[in-house]
Amino acid sequence: MATSTTIDRGAPPEILTRLLRAELSAVETYRGALARLDDRAAGAQLRQICVDHSRSVQVLRGLLLRHGEAAPDSTASHSRAADVSGDHGLAATVHALRDDEARQVEAYRRALSDPALTPQVKAMIRSDLLRRSETHVPTLEALIAAD
């Protein structure tokens, strides 16, 4: 008896929906931060990270759709970065964004150990989603150091 190894095998793990919600939250958070900080030197880097999260949203939506699941369009999740304002807005916002990014990296790493995910999905997480997220932390740390 052969078992299927395609991405389409079985019901989608809840972890894909959680990862998608986290990515949607990140897009919303970066858009909020850009509304306040886009005119600063950090704006270009924050904009690129927002684009990266938008790409991750599309990848995760595609995975859920392949499983026949409707993917959420938004999330009620709220990041600390969205709450930061005032005179120290840039530094505090970038610190909060970095902390959120570190949590996202850990969420992807945990997903790699989820037995419900197929090897193909894990490969996509490892080569695309995790790798992209891992680049955000040092970018934000460089912004913090430059401030």
UniProtKB/TrEMBL annotation:
InterPro entries: Ferritin-like, Ferritin-like_SF. This is DUF2383 domain-containing protein. It comes from Nannocystis punicea.
